[in-house]
Amino acid sequence: MKLIHEVRAVKNKKEIANIITAQRISERVLGNVLKKLKSGVTEITIAQFITGKFAKYGAHILSFPPIVSFGKNTANIHHEPNKTKLKKGDIVMFDFGCTINHYCSDMTRTYFWGEPNTRQKEIYIDVLKAQELALKKISTKERRAKIIDKAARGFLDKKYGKKNKKNFLHGLGHGVGTVIHEWPNFKPKSDDIIPIGCVMTIEPGLYFKGFGGVRIEDMILITETGYKNLTTTPKDINSAIL
Fold first, then answer.
1. Under 8 Å between Cβ of 22 and 59
2. Measured at the alpha carbon of residue 172, what is the angle toward residues 168 and 173, in degrees to the nearest 5?
């Protein structure tokens, strides 16, 4: 007998349409945010701007309070926006989403305010590569959560050593629906099997205290042939340099 969370995980066309609509609004808001950025602006000002833009586009209920972090604050996974000001050389992270007819969207993008240094650039490229490896695994119809998590985590562990557990502290992703964190979960020890019709996030990250962090998060729909990416915002390294 299927449990309620397993039934809820598989989305019908109407549910998927709501999630996609929410995601398109989020992408529109992100575009507005990038134009609003300037040296000296504070995280809290941008967070308030994000909330205001969502309301303007008819999305009055957010998936969760927007995460806006500049510089070293990007090393904090659940950073709460404060009066930190944006300055040249900073890593910039946005993680937000909204709800449409109770269905959530979720996206993270990391940027550089000016030309990134060698280490910043390398970390970004590695996180993007980790995400691509996980997506590639899903495209082969792999459905075991821990195997998909390992595709990304294994690459980062190899590159950053055994201490990487401190650098990649969260699961690779989670289900999305009427709540922002639904079953199933991409985690190293997860026994979850990801069903077709499920919407998942793929969000590898690397975080270094006192330096900063990078997270790249897309939402995907699990299909019979692999997956469909519901996120259209560019994430290549050139797009990440502002």
1. yes
2. 135
- The residue whose two tokens read 């997270």 is 215
List the domain range (segments joined by +) for residue 90.
4-240
Which among 145, 106, 152, 135 has a CA at the least distance from the CA of 227? 135
Q: E strands within the chain?
A: 67-70, 91-96, 99-100, 103-104, 107-112, 173-175, 182-186, 199-202, 205-208, 212-215, 218-222, 227-229
Token readout for 121 is 């650039």
CA angle 191, 192, 193 (to 5 degrees): 120
Identify the CATH number of the domain in which residue 201 sits.
Answer: 3.90.230.10
Q: Confidence band (pLDDT; 50, 70, 90) for 6? A: confident
* pLDDT, tens digit (0-9, with 9 covering 90-100), for 45-103: 999 999 999 999 999 999 999 999 999 999 999 999 999 999 999 999 999 999 999 99
Q: In the chain, how many domains are there? A: 1
